[in-house]
Specification:
Blueprint (H helix, E strand, L loop, with lengths): L7 H15 L1 H26 L27
GO cellular component, one term: TAT protein transport complex
Protein name: Sec-independent protein translocase protein TatA
Membrane topology: Single-pass membrane protein
Length: 76
């Protein structure tokens, strides 16, 4: 017995049919796409653990204000 009542020979036949239908290049591309998707998912899960800009305390921004004069043209 194999997995859930499926023998190893039945799994081999299914694998052979899938390879014949899709070809090895397409299967390799699908595998690469799935791997990239899993990497992206893991990265996004790890990024959620890091505090965002709004949650960080004690940090300030160094900026300078510009004074606008009345002589600049405004589009109304």
């Amino acid at each position: 017995m194999g997995f859930g009542g499926i023998s190893i020979w039945q799994l081999a036949i299914i694998l052979l049919i899938v390879i014949l239908l899709f070809g090895t290049k397409r299967l390799k591309g699908i595998g690469s796409d799935v791997g990239e998707a899993i990497k992206g998912f893991r990265k996004s899960m790890n990024d959620d653990d890091k505090p965002s800009v709004e949650q960080r305390k004690g940090e300030t921004l160094d900026v300078q204000a510009e004074k606008k004069t009345e002589s600049t043209s405004h589009k109304d």
